[in-house]
Design brief:
The complex is a heterodimer of chains A (186) and B (301). Chain A has 186 residues and is mostly helical. Chain A has 11 helices and no strands. The chains are: A mainly alpha (186), B alpha/beta (301).
Chain lengths: 186, 301
């Protein structure tokens, strides 16, 4: 078991920032573990969601923001739905991801690459273009065999398009992303 | 029943591709029930899960553009078949009630966001506005002999304070509809367990585990089919069912319908209108079985 000296590494700014951005009181968590018990992804996590909550309470910024768990949470809301103290745990996980991105703690997880490919598709087309998203993901991960086996099954169904659907307002959507980038750089 | 139900309809990106049969069957069912849908003009992506994992103001701005499009139609509410779109559109409206947050969103938009537009799911308006008893009266081809489980997925009803519909742990909306259509509904114990969501591409192993558990459970309770209300759930369970069988050594062949497809069938719509041929796990045997069961029942009567 890893022993942490909380007195030496407690980061009060981190605690304040998580509370402000999530609108949640971290001290309301009394470590019952119900969030972890119901988390479908906990098998994949390096730090369980209840431990993320405890480490966040204890201001352990580095350890929390470098957790792989942040990139394996699918926001299924089980933790939020079951917290006996009405803490929106899923929103805290979201806020921690935002902070990890901003502070460069982001690992190389494939889920994040997929999310980024998704958003780049929205930025370019205004809507998600599924084939373009897959190609973008593959080009960033080198995983050329991704879902290749689904081709023969799905192609005859006429569900897959090789061109994005055209929409007039796609520039407006691109502008949202551009302004967000500018705002984030401030 | 209100005889003039009229909604703005937000299809969502997957409706143009992998969940086209959900869109087709939602539209066909609404038309059959005289529910008027008008597409949100030039709608764009809501940002789905990826946007809210980056930033909440970005996510809400992507939704706000669409809420503004609804406002431009002179309507104050819209409906969508997709739970992920639903969650984002509802979250945006809810969070923009906070002035500080709204300012951040407005910084990303051409014009200030509209904060009045309510969003509901197609399922919710069918249950609450149209009414299950009224649906029951419209059934012309009951789903005789069908034993079905209803799988809601994780976010259709959660977080409860935001979604304001049905129950967060034990939803019944689709169970009740299926019962009204003449099917035998078996209680599905994993109604709100996550299927693996959008991890099918980046972490297929996780989807194989989570969706595999759903299919194993469906089989163990004797469900001939599952109904869903979510494009991602349906896609993981249907399109990836062979992958799941291969990964887990199982032999499932369980048709996974959108609830609107079975509803449409019972209303007398054609299989083609409902996109039955778009499903990867063929429902052919099951559809023929239902017709046969109904014939036997009629003869006996």
């Amino acid at each position: 078991m890893k022993v942490i000296n909380i007195n030496l590494s407690y980061n009060s700014d981190f605690v304040t920032q998580v509370e402000e951005e999530s609108g949640q009181k971290l001290n309301n968590c009394y470590q019952c573990g119900k969030c972890t018990a119901g988390c479908p992804y906990t098998e994949e996590y390096d730090i369980s969601v209840s431990q993320i909550m405890r480490l966040t309470q204890a201001g352990q910024k580095e350890q929390v923001l470098q957790a792989n768990s942040l990139w394996l949470c699918a926001t299924c809301e089980s933790c939020t739905a079951r917290c006996p103290n009405q803490i929106d745990v899923a929103r805290i996980m979201d806020v921690l991801r935002h902070m990890a991105r901003k502070e460069g703690y982001v690992g190389t997880g494939r889920v994040k690459t997929f999310w980024d490919s998704f958003l780049s598709s929205v930025k370019n087309n205004g809507r998600v273009f599924e084939v373009g998203l897959l190609v973008n993901y593959i080009s960033h991960t080198g995983r050329f065999w991704t879902d290749i086996g689904l081709g023969p099954k799905v192609l005859p169904k006429g569900k897959i398009h090789f061109k994005p659907t055209e929409m007039q307002g796609k520039k407006e959507v691109a502008k949202i992303f551009m302004r967000f980038k500018e705002e984030s750089a401030r | 029943m209100n005889t003039s139900l009229n909604y703005a309809y937000y299809p969502g990106c997957s409706s143009t591709g992998t969940s086209i049969e959900y869109d087709m069957s939602s539209r066909a069912v609404c038309a059959a029930l005289d529910i008027k849908l008008t597409d949100v003009p030039d709608w764009s992506c809501c940002g789905s899960t990826p946007a809210h994992t980056v930033d909440h103001s970005l996510s809400s701005a992507l939704s706000a553009r669409n809420l503004d499009q609804v406002a431009s139609m002179g309507l104050d509410s819209c409906i969508t078949p997709c739970p992920s779109c639903l969650a984002n559109l509802k979250t945006a409206k809810h969070r923009m009630e906070d002035e500080g947050f709204r300012d951040k969103v407005n910084n990303l938009l051409d014009k200030p966001a509209n904060t009045k537009i309510e969003t509901k799911s197609v399922l919710q308006i069918l249950v609450e506005d149209y009414g299950i008893e009224n649906i029951r009266k419209k059934v012309v081809k009951p789903l005789t002999g069908l034993v079905v489980g209803a799988y809601y997925g994780c976010i259709l009803n959660r977080p409860a304070e935001l979604m304001q519909f049905d129950d967060r742990e034990h939803p019944m909306a689709m169970d009740n509809i299926m019962e009204a259509l003449g099917a035998t509904v078996v209680p599905f114990p994993l109604k709100v367990e996550c299927c693996g969501a959008s991890f099918g591409i980046p972490r297929k192993d996780v989807v194989m585990r989570l969706s595999g558990k759903l299919l194993d459970t469906a089989k163990s309770i004797g469900a001939m089919a599952l109904v869903t209300a979510c494009p991602l759930c349906q896609m993981n369970l249907d399109m990836r069912q062979d992958q799941i069988n291969h990964a887990n050594g199982s032999h499932h062949k369980i048709p996974i319908f959108y609830f609107t497809q079975l509803l449409g069938l019972a209303l007398g719509l054609t299989e083609k209108e409902l996109g039955m041929n778009k499903l990867c796990v063929s429902p052919r045997t099951l559809l023929d079985f239902m017709v046969n069961e109904e014939n036997i029942k009629e003869k006996a009567a």
